[in-house]
Specification:
3 helices, elongated
Amino acid sequence: MADIDTYLPELSALIEQRLELLRSLAESLEVSQVALVGNDAEAIARGAAHQAELCRQWGLLEEQLRKAKRPSNPSSETGHGGSLDREYSAHLQAEWDELGTRIRYLTRVHWSLLRHMQRSLAVLSRVVESCAPTYAAPGPGLSRPEAGAGAGE
């Protein structure tokens, strides 16, 4: 029973950290959407860095969860905590499901905005390429005619 008493609080803390990371990721994705819509390059870069850090933290947390000490007698877990544990577990599961749905939606919107930006950049690139001959600097053998030179000849 002592193993369970130390195992469950440790596992609960890790699960709550996992949920907090998901909340932070969802918030970061929402902020990044505003940056993408506003074409705010600095905010986009900050958002991407923050999301990468959250993913790194997620990986570390998942490793901790895998290594978490398991009770030696899993059958002794049944009945420990009664309905309170079941209610808490149901609450955590509901929040997990809600955050998962929210993040899937946010990543679809994020991906759509990124694809839109990519298409816009491709159009802009084609416009710049088509204008390049007009605005390109003359090569070493070419020179611009001097004003007035050759006009009176």
